[in-house]
Amino acid sequence: MYGKASAPEYRGSLDGLSVNASLEEVLAKAVEQRRQAEREGSDLEAAHAGLAVAEASRRLGRVTEAERAWKASYRAARRAGDQGAMAWAVWSGGTLARQRGALALARRWLATAAELAERGGDVVARGYALAGLAETGRIQGDYQAVGELHEKLLAEARRRGEARHTVWALEGIAQMHRNTGSYDTALAMFEEAAEIAAGADDARGRAWALRGIADVLSVRGETGRALGLLSEAEVTCREMGLVSALAYNHKMRGNVLFRAGRYPEAEECYRGALEEFRAMGEPRGEALARLGLVKTRARLGRDLADTAADLESLHRTLGGIGLRHARDMVEAARAELGIGTVPAQPVG
Description:
Layout: H1 23-40, H2 43-59, H3 63-80, H4 83-99, H5 103-120, H6 123-140, H7 143-160, H8 163-179, H9 183-199, H10 203-219, H11 223-240, H12 243-259, H13 263-280, H14 283-299, H15 304-321, H16 324-337
């Protein structure tokens, strides 16, 4: 039913790159191709190569380079008069904005990308832009608003036999089910995503699916199986240079160990993930790792007043980013640890 997964963000002369190519390899080839396109005066090819530079840089956690690259790609695409290439560049910018915690900006860029793709007749770019909008709403916890869009995109991906997008949609919907307590449904969808990704040779999609499976299994107390799946996924993340995915894998390992009561090990995992997220400028991951670290240190005997102050700070941080579900997690942590809110300090 599904063909081999492809990477449509690798365009032009780079379209032969595998979805599983290491990001350092992609970056090196894309930088060289961009130089050649600029020497030859080919704006469209420069736009394609610039997009690959932007995406490889973003996934490697090099956000400053990614920002420069997607904007340069957009300018080259505009000079070439290609709205499809413009859409891909703006999609990359919107995805980067979401990664950096600028969710309102992400929505604006991704909506613009969808419009450009529609005008340019690029069905795949439009699908990616809409998927980005759906994912942005999902990580904010606005499930009611984006649930229908996720389901629609899943149906479209299944109809076209697009493995990579089917896997993405399944994982997104599964995550919403997991977060609302429908563990059986979530597990079945994560497992289907992993199976499709394996059949389509989509190593990245499978690594994310294994992380989801591990999460649900650990909630059920299957710690050993969960840790084994995370170790398997980590191998893929390291081989491909998936810096962000690796940090989230380490954060999830902390979650699994915390649920098992293995607090010293959990603390080490959360601390490592926190450093990784800070290095790549990813505030959502940083806040989630901080939350795990605060909870773990409380279990290890840290003063409750200090813990309460940290949770209050996290609540404000997550609210500022716009992550409603994560903010609810702080409330759950307060209840779990028997901590109330910190009273507001008087001014002056």
